[in-house]
Design brief:
five-stranded antiparallel beta sheet, alpha+beta, binds zinc ion, binds ligand K1U, two-stranded antiparallel ribbon, about 200 residues
Length: about 200
């Protein structure tokens, strides 16, 4: 425990940019929803981790935590860049923010796993999706350092869901055509009603 004198010496506010680069200059952005056609764009690779990309990442964390969600692709806030934020920490665990830039699946297992997925761009819909149980993903972090991660469980599912977003693919595309068409129809009607 710090002494009372040590507590008094502490600055009242920490500089968020120093303690955690992800929470500098954050802004909440709107998450675009089905049937917004931007969700079908193929996002562009990030050439350089610029100040603009750092601001985008900070905004993505703010937006993802507020939703709340465990992942977010930049296109979900209308920015077609190959940037993903993730945090798979449970409620009672400390935050575990991860930034995944230009991710590529370089290996996937033949074994499959089924997970009930949700999507912040298709609110209140949860459906079982079958995907490779394990994947190896190459990506770059915010410092521009390349990494490879072998993922299974929820991380494997979430990485595949987010990489799909970067390629204009939604989790409903993994369902039967009948189910997908019904979902698109329902969200298109809701969007039209909201416009009127
Ligand atoms: O990309 C997105 O739309 C985010 C999505 C990620 C995801 C969830 C489940 C399986 C695959 C990918 C979400 O975060 S949906 C919300 C969600 O799953 C959740 C929200 C709060 C606590 C726990 C989970
Ligand atoms: Zn999604």
């Amino acid at each position: 425990m710090p002494t009372a004198a040590a507590r008094r010496r502490r600055p009242r506010q920490i500089d968020p940019g120093v303690s955690c680069p992800y929470i500098a200059r954050m802004a909440l952005r709107e998450i675009i929803k089905l049937p917004d056609p931007r969700l079908r764009l193929v996002s562009e690779p990030v050439e350089k981790v610029s100040e603009e990309i750092r601001t985008l990442v900070a905004d993505m964390f703010e937006t993802m935590y507020a939703a709340p969600g465990i992942g977010l692709a930049a296109i979900q806030i209308g920015i077609p860049q190959r940037v993903v934020t993730l945090d798979l920490a449970k409620k009672d665990e400390p935050k575990a923010p991860q930034v995944v830039i230009n991710p590529e699946i370089i290996w996937k297992s033949e074994a499959l796993n089924t997970y009930e997925e949700g999507c912040l761009s298709i609110p209140e819909l949860y459906e079982e999706v079958e995907r490779p149980a394990q994947v190896k993903v190459r990506y770059t972090d915010l410092d521009g350092t390349p990494h490879e991660v072998e993922a299974n469980g929820l991380l494997a599912t979430c990485l595949q869901h987010e990489i799909d977003h970067l390629n204009g693919i939604l989790f409903i595309d993994h369902l039967s055509r009948l189910k997908r068409d019904r979902i698109i129809k329902k969200f298109t009607k809701a969007a039209k009603r909201a416009e009127d």
